[in-house]
Amino acid sequence: MKNLYNTERLFADLFDVRREFDEMFSRMLTGKTWGFELPEFTKEFKKEFNMAPAVETYVDKEAKKYVCRVALPGVELKDVQVNAQGNLLVIRGERKVTHREKEAELFEEEIAYGVFERTLTMPEGVNTEKLSAEFVNGVLEITAPVAAAALPRKIEVKTATPLAKQMAA
Fold first, then answer.
1. Would you give the distance in Å from CA 125 to the centre of its chain?
2. What b-and-e string marks burial along 47-78, b requiring 16 or more CB atoms within 10 Å of the CB?
3. pLDDT digits (tens, 9 = 90+) for 115-160
4. Closest CA to 116 of 50, 68, 55
5. Where do the domains of the chain lie?
6. What 3-state class would DSSP assign to 43?
7. Residue 67 and residue 142: Cα distance in Å, rounded?
8. For residue 63, what is the DSSP state?
9. 2.60.40.790, 3.40.50.300, 3.30.40.10, 1.10.287.130: which CATH number matches 51-149?
10. Which residues contact 49 (CB under 8 A, 6 or more apart)?
């Protein structure tokens, strides 16, 4: 029974399976590597499937500020809008196609183009009146101060005398 599966390649086989699934889903979305034209429903899906930029948000306890970082490579500053309403932060923009399909024969098409919108809920205590935004090297960084009362704090847990000992005294 021990010789049914060679465990020397266990992790390599697991990573191979994941890589094959990734390739399969890439082929399903592009259709190019299978050598046929995409079905009509897939074209519509791809047209509606706009880009969704990666987002990272956190509260910096030491600096007492809220930080939201959005990866926007290939997006120009003039195509980005940031709005705040209540505790909602809305980031809109567009990554425009820089080439035309008639001008270039695409071999791979993995970069998503189009309009995007991300709506994020900011934590309580963020001073939305003092939101500021900077766009550097394709990363949009939005910051705002956080009220000290809203920052997480450590609560000390004390030991208590068991109830039985209290009653005996």
1. 23
2. eeeebebeeeeebeeeeebbebebebeebeee
3. 889 999 999 889 999 999 999 999 999 999 998 777 777 888 988 7
4. 50
5. 1-49, 51-149
6. helix
7. 6
8. T
9. 2.60.40.790
10. 112
Query: Looking at residue 49, what is its pLDDT?
Result: 47
Contacts of 74 (CB under 8 A, 6+ apart): 95, 98, 111, 138
Residues 6+ apart with CB under 8 A from 66: 57, 58, 59, 60, 122, 123, 126, 143, 144, 145, 146
Single-letter residue type at 13: D
Cβ(134)–Cβ(141) under 8 Å?
yes
139 token code pair: 């990363």
- Token output for 55: 């987002």
User: Residue length, the chain?
Assistant: 169
